[in-house]
Amino acid sequence: MNEELIRRMKEISARLSEASKAYYQEDREIMSNLEYDRLYAELEQLEKESGVVLSDSPTVRVGYEAVDTLPKEPHQTPMLSLDKTKDREVLRDFIGSHKTLLSWKMDGLTVVLTYENGTLSKAVTRGNGIIGEVVTNNAGVFKNLPVRIPYTGRLVLRGEAIITYEDFERINAGIEDVDAKYKNPRNLCSGSVRQLNNRVTAERNVRFYAFGLVSAGDVDFEDSHEKEMRWLAAQGFETVEYRVVTADTLDAAMEYFAEKIAENSFPSDGLVALYDSISYGQSLGTTAKFPRNAFAFKWADEQRETRLLEIEWSPSRTGLINPVAVFEPAELEGTTVSRASVHNVSIVKELELGVGDRLLVYKANMIIPQIAENLTRSGNPFIPETCPACGGKTVIRRENDVESLFCPNPECPAKRVKSFALLANRDALNIDGLSEATLEKFIGRGMIREGADLFSLPEHREEILQMEGFGEKSCDRLAESLEKARNTTLSRLLYGLGIPNIGVANAKVICRYFDNDIEKIRHASAEEFGEIDTIGPVIGKSLADYFASEENEEKLDRLLACLQIEKEEVSREQSLQGKIFVITGSLQHFANRNELKERIEELGGKVTGSVTGKTDYLINNDTASGSSKNRKARELGVPVISEEEFMELSGVAGTL
Prior knowledge:
Elements: H1 2-25, H2 33-50, E1 53-54, E2 72-74, E3 84-85, H3 88-95, E4 100-106, E5 109-116, E6 119-125, E7 131-133, H4 136-139, E8 146-148, E9 155-162, H5 165-173, H6 185-193, H7 198-203, E10 207-216, H8 225-234, E11 242-245, H9 250-260, E12 268-275, H10 278-284, E13 294-298, E14 303-315, E15 320-332, E16 335-341, H11 345-350, E17 358-364, E18 368-374, E19 395-399, E20 402-406, H12 417-424, H13 436-444, H14 461-465, H15 472-485, E21 487-489, H16 490-496, H17 504-513, H18 518-522, H19 526-530, H20 536-548, H21 550-560, E22 564-566, E23 580-583, H22 593-602, E24 606-608, E25 617-619, H23 628-636, E26 640-641, H24 643-650
Parallel strand pairs: 3-13, 21-22, 23-24, 23-25, 25-26
Antiparallel strand pairs: 1-8, 2-7, 4-11, 4-12, 5-6, 5-9, 9-10, 12-13, 14-15, 14-17, 15-16, 15-20, 17-18, 19-20
């Protein structure tokens, strides 16, 4: 009965949340106030009847909190790993005639939760199985975790915290630096659960799925793990999906899971078999490493035969040149793959790779393409003697018995990928479609060696179309973005040049000082730059040194030939001259923080990321909140002002 109530509660919560988002964030109404109030009252009544309150319930206001450290704590009982196999028959022998729960082996971060008096009192990560980290602050904002349950005794349970593929893609899409992107959902989840500020955890939509009960006082589960799972579901927890099997019914369940994995929104690297009988499982005890009542099944990797077309050598910003095997397209785990990293020269030699070789390829953990075996081993790899990016001579270095190919040229364009990314940044030339990963590909093929080369990319259209991840539409979008980027402002260009200590604000200040005249800027002395407010002698010298370089001047000339510099409207009113602001929270009158930041800079102010003794104002529409920045501001005597108060202070009220 409780499970039906919880399902209804989830349905209502989703509808109310959608209505609130539409009303408050999108300025549209999808539900009448009467209907909203009716559903809200029903939800409150269901929460009262069931004793369950879900973490994302509209009746709960989540408070965010930051901590300084994550303390460590030993587990009450060690968390052992599971013995595993890829052989179905080994799993069948383990199950035998015993009633067994077969469930997903989720690939996230294991967390142990403790509830007392119906509320969450502690959450600890698995850690090394003996000692874990206390993450109670973060578990309280897990997307689907109940904040209150009907059971008021002491409850300890285990489960997996995960991040879905959809959220993984969403979060990675918002990270411009390719090196900062997360490699897989598991790494992202681990970092999200172990954040010091639980607002970050909440924003990443971490979910928790219970897979085991450790203790629940005097509750009688009639010697059945399945009844434990049902009881946990009735308490409001989402439990890992399972099937009840014996050796005779194993095959049908295995086929179900094998088909379902392609549709799952969460990562899974196999299945777990657990004897249903609690007493029987306990009687078996454990080995030094594994419990004897459970067994893990790892998916046997699907393999396909294909033919090696080439080894592509891709230079990186560290000088390392990575070999990538390019082969005839192969269908694996429901997708088409045609490339796999070979990692280093040693592996290329070990596999005896040569163009035309027959390969067996697979996806590690059903995700990452890898070479399983070279069937023909021609042993004829082409290891380039020159770098594809700069043409300089390459060297093979041996470290820890591993050979790798390097480009030692300090001026290699591949080592300056971040400088190209900065030039393409939205605050600089604002070229869409040029992530660091994409730039690395273009640099590796010798298409980009300096800034002006970006605008020649459309000339390489046919070659780009042959590259993985590019099609007609993406090439068209890139060409359109490059054409749009030709019209820019001098301050954007100056920022994009990557001169040390020249950020967006300083670039605007410099351009205003020199009347947006590039020639005046190029020929100014360090002393002249140093006279500018907020610049000073150190930054002034770095500016003068940059423009004193003949190579930099020649590159700038070629870049300027590709651009149309628009005259910026300079605000003569500098009402915020010398004032330092910090912006936090959501905005109502400005489209985003960047727009507000630009407005402050236009009026002579500066925006920083953290509150210090030098901060003049913290802008936060929730002036009374207990956020860490508000607390810091109050400690330092920094005024916390709303957007409206800022507009009055700066004299822009009524202009937006």
